[in-house]
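Lay summary. Proteins are chains of building blocks that fold into shapes, and those shapes determine what they do. In this project we predict the shape from the chain. Here is one chain we studied, written as its sequence of building blocks.
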Amino acid sequence: MDAASLARLNEARRDRRAVALITDLDGGRDTVALEGDDPGTSLKLAVEAAFRSGKANLVEAGGRRYFINVHLPPAHIVIVGAVHISQVLAKMAALAGFDVRVIDPRTAFATPERFEGVDLTTDWPVDALADRPLDAYTALVAVTHDPKIDDLPIGEALQAGCFYVGALGSRKTHAARLERLRNQRISEGALDRIHAPIGLAIGAANPAEIAVAILAEIVQSLRSRHLSSPYGDIR
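And here is the predicted shape, written in a compact code that computers can read:
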């Protein structure tokens, strides 16, 4: 690998951007492609599949052999709300390989005893997210039912191009939420990206089942996400 390719690869990994090193096994030439780049017609589908799966692959295209080695940033799940659903979701998500953070300024809910071993922050989201911003490899899960806590991180998640934005609440609750977000001049296209009611429609009836539905929807979103990141301005 030449110095320029190595530098671009390291820069992408440092900036938490998905990047692929594509090696022409017949010619020995390396190419570095960021997620959303066009690697050429013959390799396009293979590179997109590698970015979605996160797995290296040997492919043949245009009569040549290529090795595609992808480097995906570790996916984060940020849960806003230290509720019963969050207790289960945090454990399951960690088992599935996600980095998990729970944010809730309500110290009666956000206790180390209820979230043992979990990265727990009792600051308001505006402060917690200023210290550790959201990005395209983050899933945002808002489950407090409190607009004063949920609305700001939802808006920031849309702005950051998070691969998943989900919010708990009925259709009536979500309609009111959308109106508040419209008043912040967030576009309809961005609002359409919010998963609400949250989670896959599996008939979940208790906190544990709702957590299963949310995690399944997050995985589905990660593996089927748009590859033209970032999503652009939400205004």
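What the prediction tells us: The chain has eight helices and ten strands.
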